[in-house]
Amino acid sequence: MKLHSFRQNLGLLFSITTLSLLISSPIVAQQGARISGRVVDELGSHVSNISVVVLPHGEMGGPPQIGFLPLQQTWTDAEGRFSLTNIGQESVTLIVGDRDNEMEVLSIEIGKLSLYPIRHPHFGKIRFSLEPGTEIGNVVITVKLETKPQIRARVVFADGTSLANASIYRILQYKNLDGSRSGSSSGAADTDADGYFVEDLDEEDDLGFYVLGVEYDGLVAKSVPFMLYEGQPQVHLLLTLNGNLSPLTQRMPDPIEMGAALAKFLNPQAVWVVNPANRHAYKQIDTHGITDAIAQATGENAYLVAINDASEADWIQKIFGRKQFWIGLNDVAEEGRWMWDSGEPVTYTNWDRYSVEGGNTKMKDYVIVAFSGQWQAVEARNPRTRRITKAILEKAATPVKIPAADN
Predict the structure, then answer these.
(1) Are the C-beta atoms of 284 and 388 separated by less than 8 Å?
(2) 180 with 284, same domain?
(3) Which of 65, 135, 331, 397 has the smallest CB count inside 10 Å?
């Protein structure tokens, strides 16, 4: 043990060693010591199948032990009880729980002494000394069981028949509420005889939405977006594939093809979104740079977005999320004279501090919206701008024609 760790635990070691003299009894016929007790939850109910380990360290205060010292391990029984006997070392560490136990130790009670976590949230082990031949009984370890949320999903064909005992490919996508964080996980899964499969979920720090998609033999399905709430143990989903399987078309699954098909299904092509304030349509595109973005805008009979006021900027961020993207402001024609691609006059700007104080140069002819929501002048050929892979297009929305009522 390092010196600072020993000092932190010195009072604890003294208390437990002193307590062992008061509550433990010598076992003359037994060479080693004994520790026994039970594990309970916050309500006092017994908890079974919890690992309890005694790891030896040799004599307290003596020279370090050379070589391997065998640990002793047991699991709590149906009544939450455990017992470790014939402990031959004076200095030991008691470890509660392991990687298979999703739990947090709240307290360890030994007689009248109660130990609680102060600095470390996962208080799962203590080190103390034992005199040979002594017994410490009625140890009460209180734990908080941490239930890991799960998805329990059933996959069926379009006619309602279960996809039974099949290997599928699945993708789970996550995005927080403001769109600033996202992620995904993917891989194979197997359904049971009723078409169900279960997947553990890692709870994200930010509240957000999840979407689960599956692929089987060219057929795909996805869930509606769903959220996880604190303490929610399981999410039940029904995934209906977009067709029925013909025995003549069955083939060996190709993971690469399955993944590509499912990713395309979960991330369809971008669509135009109409801003009710000005009746203009907006669309987010993927791009390889500003030149490609301008070319795509021209092909769509549109232009790179012109942001004319703060309310329009806020609406764009709410719709498309907080990210970096190209906009239509540039000073290509005349250095320092900024113009919109659309030809609209520049009535509003939102430069960041660096751009206002001279960040613009002869090489920085184009503008992006940064993660902060503020604008930055950038150089089109700078390698850093390759990371900017999004752009927002804008065009006047086509009015919806309502047919005249028949007379």
Answers:
(1) no
(2) no
(3) 65
**Residue 243 neighbours by CB under 8 Å, 6+ apart:** 157, 158, 219
Residue 245's domain comprises 150-266
Exposed e or buried b for every residue in 12-31, given b needs 16+ CB within 10 A? ebeebeebbeeebeebeeee
Length of the chain: 407
Instruction: Mark whether 278 and 374 lie in a shared domain.
Output: yes
Count of C-beta atoms within a 10 Å radius of residue 326 = 29
Assess contact for 234 and 152: CB atoms under 8 A. Answer: yes
CA-to-CA dists, residue 187 to 172, 173, 345, 394, angstroms: 9, 12, 51, 37
Please give the pLDDT value at position 400: 45
Ranges of residues in the chain with a pLDDT under 70 are 1-31, 57-70, 89-90, 98-102, 117-125, 147, 177-180, 202-207, 229-232, 246-265, 267-269, 356-361, 397-407
Confidence (pLDDT) at 12:
38
| CA pair distance 406, 352, nearest whole angstrom | 57
Q: Is 171 found in the same domain as 218? A: yes
- Statement to judge: residues 139 and 187 lie in one domain: no
Rounded distance between C-alpha atoms, residue 172 and residue 142, angstroms = 35
Query: CA–CA distance from 52 to each of 71, 80, 98, 157 (Å)?
Result: 11, 11, 9, 47
Residues 306, 391 share a domain: yes
- Does residue 407 form part of some domain? no
Residue 405, domain member (yes or no): no
- Domain CATH for 214: 2.60.40.1120
Residue 97 domain flag: yes
Looking at 126, 145, 164, the residue that finishes a domain is 145
Q: Rounded to whole angstroms, how far apart are CA atoms 240 and 223?
A: 9
Query: Which tokens sit at 238?
Result: 């029904």
Strands, E assignment, 273-389: 273-274, 280-286, 303-304, 325-330, 339-340, 366-369, 375-378
> What are the tokens at 237?
């989903």
Per DSSP, which regions of 146-231 are E strands? Answer: 150-156, 167-176, 182-190, 196-200, 208-216, 219-222
Number of helices (H) and strands (E) in the chain: give both, helices first: 5, 25
Q: In 10 A of CB 380, how many CB atoms?
A: 15
Residue 64: give its domain's CATH number.
Answer: 2.60.40.10
Task: Identify whether residues 305 and 381 lie together within a single domain.
Answer: yes
